[in-house]
């Protein structure tokens, strides 16, 4: 970009390119902070660099209203790298703070206090980066062909765990950068050493040479977020604040108001470039719902500090920021730029009001939609109640059937037990019958053997009987013959001899 103040920027893209280059230089300058030796001079120089970075991020956020989504994505990537560097710096300072809690040396205590102020400025810059991503995320999601107001549903950030996990893995997504930056800020604010550190800076900010009005303003901005976090120790903050609160203070609110007022008077009575510069770089409220095209910021208000930005850029590149090289007129130019910036902020706020009006209309439509959904939900609830009643009735019936089945099962178990006992007795009886059957079979076998023997004897007796019958028949035949002979003899002799006598005579034996 041109370093001559006479060269005028002709487009928002060129102006954004200048801011991006300055962001790159700032990020490069901040990348080596962690390895430097911690002294009051280095801490003061780094704090001024952080204030310059805060101013650049704010101006980049203002320029996003007139840029396309691609340019916004480019700016967001540079701001994301800056936020990552700032997060590392804040974590490094918090670790140093944890290691050096009890310090007796006054000089070393001043260095640690300066390191605390540097940590507060780092967290404040991280908050400014978060506001930038919150402003740029709806613009980056806007379609290039769409020139009208954006739908609130299209610009709304879905904060469900699934969507948040998805956005965290999207390297080029502005919404992903927003989640990362906000998580980093929340993690730093939830560190146990942050609560007492904020209380200490809020009370003793102007009593250290490097502590000025802007530190208390940064602490108040950070407290707006920290007080809503669960892991932020509010009790530790209040106890630390009460311990270091000077005696005679009536209340915490009055003390804060008086100290901020005194700091403002001191800065107005003894102006210096550093105080004017840091006061000019105070973060203003960025619009988190910039959902409509804002009015283009006049580019004439940006040219007055180009030479000063060039000097700062050269000083940062040389790693030696010389405050003495900045004249009072240049500081006045920055004040004039701050006034113009407030005017541009007024235009942005007017556009924001218009956007909120449009969003209100959209919210009315959404409310009507949710009313319809509520009626549908009521009908669904009544249907579910009926289903629940029927389910309860079915459950009661099922429970009664289950009890009946249990009783039936108990009866069947008793019957089964009785049948098992009967089966055991029948088995014993069967065994007895088997033994009886075997003995009877043995007896039958013996009887059959005896029967066969008797049959043989009977056959033998029958044969003998037949033989005896034949002998008897022969004897009868012989008797008849003898009887006939005897009768003949008797007839012939006239003697009557009985057949028996004749038989005896014939058979004397």
Walk me through this protein's architecture.
Helix 2 runs parallel beside helix 12. It is built from 16 helices and no strands. With 509 residues, the chain is mainly α. The chain has a domain at 12-142 and 158-309 and 316-326. It is 76% helix and 0% strand. It starts with 11 loop residues before the first helix and ends with a helix.
Helical amount among residues, as a percent range?
A: over 70%
Structure summary, number of beta strands: 0
Q: Classify the secondary structure makeup into a structural class.
A: mainly alpha
Distance between the termini: 182 Å
Summarize the structure.
Keywords: Coiled coil. This is Protein CIP2A. The chain has about 500 residues and is mainly α.
Topology:
Layout: H1 12-30, H2 40-63, H3 69-99, H4 106-140, H5 152-155, H6 161-168, H7 174-189, H8 194-204, H9 213-226, H10 234-244, H11 252-269, H12 273-280, H13 300-303, H14 306-317, H15 328-493, H16 499-506
Characteristics of this structure?
coiled coil, about 0% strand, 16 helices, about 500 residues, mainly alpha, about 75% helix, Protein CIP2A, disordered N terminus
């Amino acid at each position: 970009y041109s370093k001559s103040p006479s060269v005028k920027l002709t487009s928002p893209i060129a102006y954004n390119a200048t801011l991006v280059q300055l962001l790159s230089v700032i990020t490069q300058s901040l990348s080596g902070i962690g390895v430097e030796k911690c002294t009051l001079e280095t801490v003061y120089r780094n704090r001024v660099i952080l204030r310059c970075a805060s101013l650049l991020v704010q101006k980049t956020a203002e320029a996003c209203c007139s840029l396309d989504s691609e340019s916004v994505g480019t700016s967001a990537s540079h701001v994301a790298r800056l936020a990552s560097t700032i997060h590392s710096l804040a974590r490094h300072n918090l670790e140093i703070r944890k290691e050096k809690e009890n310090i007796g040396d006054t000089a070393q205590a001043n260095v640690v206090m300066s390191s605390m102020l540097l940590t507060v400025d780092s967290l404040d810059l991280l908050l400014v980066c978060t506001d930038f991503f919150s402003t740029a995320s709806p613009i980056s999601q806007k379609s290039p062909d769409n020139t009208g107001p954006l739908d609130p549903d299209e610009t709304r950030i879905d904060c469900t765990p699934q969507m948040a996990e998805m956005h965290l893995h999207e390297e080029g997504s502005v919404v992903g950068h927003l989640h990362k930056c906000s998580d980093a800020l929340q993690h730093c604010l939830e560190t146990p050493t942050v609560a007492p550190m904020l209380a200490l800076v809020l009370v003793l900010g102007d009593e250290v040479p490097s502590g000025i009005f802007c530190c208390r303003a940064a602490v108040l901005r950070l407290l707006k977020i920290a007080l809503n976090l669960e892991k932020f120790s509010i009790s530790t903050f209040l106890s630390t604040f009460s311990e270091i609160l000077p005696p005679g203070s009536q209340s915490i609110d009055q003390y804060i108001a008086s100290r901020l007022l005194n700091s403002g008077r001191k800065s107005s009575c003894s102006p210096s470039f550093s105080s004017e510069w840091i006061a000019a770089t105070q973060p203003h409220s960025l619009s988190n719902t910039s959902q409509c095209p804002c009015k283009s910021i006049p580019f004439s208000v940006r040219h007055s500090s180009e030479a000063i930005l060039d000097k700062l850029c050269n000083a940062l590149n040389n790693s030696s920021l010389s405050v003495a090289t900045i004249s009072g007129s240049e500081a006045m130019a920055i004040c004039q730029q701050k006034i113009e910036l407030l005017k541009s902020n007024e235009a942005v706020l007017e556009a924001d009001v218009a956007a909120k009006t449009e969003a209100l209309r959209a919210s009315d439509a959404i409310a009507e939609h949710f009313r319809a959904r509520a009626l549908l939900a009521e009908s669904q609830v009544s249907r579910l109640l009926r289903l629940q009643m029927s389910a309860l009735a079915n459950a009661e019936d099922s429970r009664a059937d289950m009890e009946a089945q249990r009783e039936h099962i108990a009866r069947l178990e008793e019957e089964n037990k009785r049948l098992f006992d009967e089966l055991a007795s029948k088995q014993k009886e069967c065994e007895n019958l088997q033994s009886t059957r075997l003995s009877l079979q043995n007896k039958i076998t013996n009887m059959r053997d005896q029967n066969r023997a008797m049959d043989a004897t009977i056959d033998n007796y029958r044969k003998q009987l037949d033989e005896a019958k034949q002998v008897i028949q022969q004897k009868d035949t012989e008797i008849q013959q003898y009887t006939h002979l005897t009768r003949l003899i008797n007839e012939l002799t006239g003697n009557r001899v009985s057949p028996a006598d004749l038989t005896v005579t014939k058979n004397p034996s």
